[in-house]
Design goal:
The protein is α+β, with helices and mostly antiparallel strands and 429 residues long. The protein is built from 15 helices and twelve strands. It has a five-stranded antiparallel β-sheet with strand order 1-2-4-5-3, sandwiched between helices. It has a five-stranded antiparallel β-sheet with strand order 6-7-9-10-8, sandwiched between helices. Helices cover 49% and strands 14% of the residues. It is elongated and about 100 Å long. It folds into three domains: 84 residues, no CATH class; 137 residues, no CATH class; 172 residues, no CATH class. Strand 4 and strand 5 form a beta hairpin. The longest helix is centred in the middle third of the chain and has 30 residues. Helix 9 runs parallel beside helix 14.
């Protein structure tokens, strides 16, 4: 038996035992089988029983055993955690599956209201176990590479051979094989090495700690990369709008999921453009506002000694400091410290006349909109691109906002993820 559909997977195991000039052979996937049970229930008894007939009788006393002749059924059984044992040209299938639930922790960065709560593990074998138990197709291919001249880090690539585009796969494998690095410790570092561009702003790979997102993307023909020692996975090729999809969208009704996705896109536009539009309108084109609204804003800024762009940059930088503090402080005090700091900062700055009340509202809306983006990797890029647009708005007004926005769109259209267009508007996955 060759098991051609899965024999190239690095977790596929073939073991042969010999006794009295007779052989038995085991076939199994170590990522979904319990190797301790294989040793205790199959290998040790093989040497303890005096005859092969007694060993056969023992095998037929095990729970979940059956005799199988078709290779396709054997492969399906192995994907479900069974061991195929060949003895005297008879193929026994014995259930010795293993699901590593004891080593699985909850996903902490990608929260969902419905759906699984578990997250990937830093141990690749456990992560593979979780993925195999969710994606039981014999076309799932698993390949292992060693990256890092000193760290010798295991990097595992997963893909569906029936769904993957061969050019995309070759592009990624060539990049992994060509990596020249001493130490590799995380998926983020691997993504940086694969992109290999100093001034790249947007993430070209989707990062996730959720096995259900991994399986969802595998079924869409994408490639998954796991790195030993980190509970995160890289998914590619990625598109810009993949970063605005939550796993809740998969389980929600179609209209609801589309509505929620639209809300996130609107939040993106608000967090990127609202500060710059505010500066452009207040500094250059206040006549576009209704008289009452214009007077309201002017009244709130009577005591402010700075132009609008200095005012908004000051408040947004304070918001950035609070975000960084919430990320770096211990979790037990981060929420209370940043909440108190934000309240005191906003209230005292307004009372001191350093910023207007309307400006505080604008910055608050911008901060809330930013956190509606479900993937953290995109947060960092969005936080950065807001400032060049504000600077252009302070120099050229609404013309600066339009030109800088078009420049960012052109930049996005020029990006490629593993050779595929990054800014794809319509994506079936």
């Amino acid at each position: 038996m060759r098991f051609r559909s899965i024999q190239n997977n690095y977790d596929f195991q073939k073991k042969s035992l010999k006794k009295y000039d007779r052989n038995i052979t085991f076939y199994f996937l170590d990522s979904v089988c319990d190797e301790k049970k294989i040793t205790q229930l199959l290998i040790t008894p093989f040497y303890e029983y005096e005859s092969f007939s007694l060993y056969k009788n023992y095998l037929e006393s095990l729970p979940g055993w059956e005799i199988i002749s078709e290779e396709a059924i054997m492969v399906e059984k192995m994907l479900n955690g069974n061991v195929i044992l060949n003895l005297d040209n008879i193929n026994y299938s014995i259930t010795l599956s293993n699901y590593s639930s004891s080593a699985v922790s909850e996903s902490t960065e990608e929260n969902v209201l419905q759906g699984p709560k578990d997250g990937l593990n830093g141990n690749i074998s456990i992560s593979l176990n979780m993925i195999r138990n969710r994606y039981k197709k014999n076309t799932l291919q698993v390949e292992k590479y060693i990256v890092g001249s000193q760290s010798k880090t295991n990097v595992v690539v997963l893909y569906d051979t029936n769904l993957i585009e061969i050019n995309v796969y070759r592009n990624l494998v060539e990049k992994i094989k060509g990596l020249n690095v001493e130490v590799l410790q995380s998926c983020g570092q691997l993504q940086k090495l694969l992109i290999n561009k100093k001034w790249m702003l947007f993430p070209l790979f989707l990062t996730t700690e959720r096995p259900d997102r991994v399986v969802n993307n595998l079924s869409s023909g994408k490639i998954i990369v796991l790195v030993e020692g980190t509970p995160w996975a890289l998914i590619g090729p990625a598109t810009f709008f993949d970063f605005f999809k939550s796993m809740d969208d998969v389980v929600q009704l179609s209209i609801v999921s589309k509505f929620l996705t639209s809300i996130r896109i609107v939040a993106l536009l608000i967090t990127v453009l609202l500060p710059a539009i505010y500066v452009a309108v207040i500094s250059y084109s206040p006549e576009v506002l209704q008289v009452q609204f214009a007077l309201l804003i002017a009244g709130s800024r009577i005591s402010v000694p700075f132009p609008s762009y200095i005012e908004i940059l000051f408040l947004m930088l304070m918001a950035e400091f609070l975000i960084e503090a919430s990320l770096r402080l211990p979790k037990t005090i981060s929420s209370s410290a940043t909440t108190v700091g934000g309240l005191i900062l906003g209230q005292t700055a307004s009372q001191a006349g350093l910023v207007g009340d309307i400006m505080i509202i604008v910055v608050s809306i911008v901060a809330i909109s930013l956190f509606s983006i479900p993937i953290n990797a995109m947060h960092q890029a969005i936080r950065v691109i807001r400032y060049p647009i504000i600077i252009f708005a302070s120099l050229f007004g609404m013309l600066g906002v339009i030109v800088s926005t078009l420049g960012i769109l052109c930049y996005l259209c020029n990006l490629r993820s593993l050779g595929k267009p990054y800014f794809t508007l319509f994506n079936n996955s």
